[in-house]
Amino acid sequence: MRFALVLALFAPVFAQDDETLTLKFKYAPGEREIMEMSLDLRMDVGVYAGAETFEQKMEGPMGFSLGVACKTSGEGRFGFEGEMGGLEMTQDMVVNGTKMKMTVKGKNVRIENADGEALIDTEKGVNAEAADEILKEFALFGQKFDITMDDRGLVKGLSENKKLREFLGGMAGENLYPVVLPDKPVKIGEEWTYVAKMKELGKLKLSGEGMDVPIKYRLEHVETAGDGARVAVITVRQETNLKDLELEGNLEGLPAGAKISIKSMTVSGKGETRFLIGTGRIQTGEFEGKAKAEMKIKVDGMEEMEGVVDAKIKAKVAPKKEKTK
After folding, report:
1. All domains in the chain, ordered by first residue
2. CA 137 to chain centre
3. Mean pLDDT, residues 185-189 taken together
């Protein structure tokens, strides 16, 4: 009996299914928030032309933070000063059978061979200039930038923000956080769809206006935690199949003017965000996704090449907890 009572005290209380809920982000001028993001990444790339083969595999964790300070608030919009920080990344790499390890921490880069010998080490001055291209990928870190986000989580002009888009690698959507909230009140079990626009893949731009990528959300249930906070549990699903896409730009290692097209690409993923209704903030978010693309690469005077990219990601996000003394 006592055991059952203890379980009852700690068990979440669920909202009624017919309750209508308004889910909106909430910020006031002067408020600050730091979201910590952790990723597990894996990417396999293969380029094949006759008997010639190039293969690269990368796998490992990456962590960073996104801090925002609210400057203005009104009419469902918030003006933020943002800053990326806390960059830490470790990637185990295999390039055509040769094993290497890359570590990035802040502005320091180290690449070592299978024997632990440094090939690049900016901190110790070993081939430091060779790390410039890597550091360009993370040039946004440590710099402040201004953004405007609405109460659904959509960032005005994100697709036109070159620095952010380069860092995000062409991720579809105008949202920095892992959820786009509904534009009207919803009940438990109801779904809504946000149609994102994919305009690029890394540094490669899709020709024309890009492709529509529907992302589906569902309010699964609402919990009342032990401290009285009401938590909306929102799931996300993504399933996109694209074919015959023309790309503009160039891949590293290919001659200038290479023509790249995607024969087929499949992107799928699922996740869950726990959203604090009262404070209008994210409690936690998780997402797991994968993508596979098959490409054709044409270069004048060379045999046509085939390319395959296979990527997987696991991501978690949560507000940074204040350290207790």
Report:
1. 15-319 (2.30.230)
2. 14
3. 96
Average pLDDT over the chain, rounded to whole? 86
User: Residue 36: what pLDDT?
Assistant: 96
pTM of the complete model: 0.87
User: Which of 3-7, 123-127, 211-215 shows the lowest mean pLDDT across its residues?
Assistant: 3-7
**pLDDT, tens digit, 9 for 90 and up, residues 88-104:** 999 999 999 999 999 99
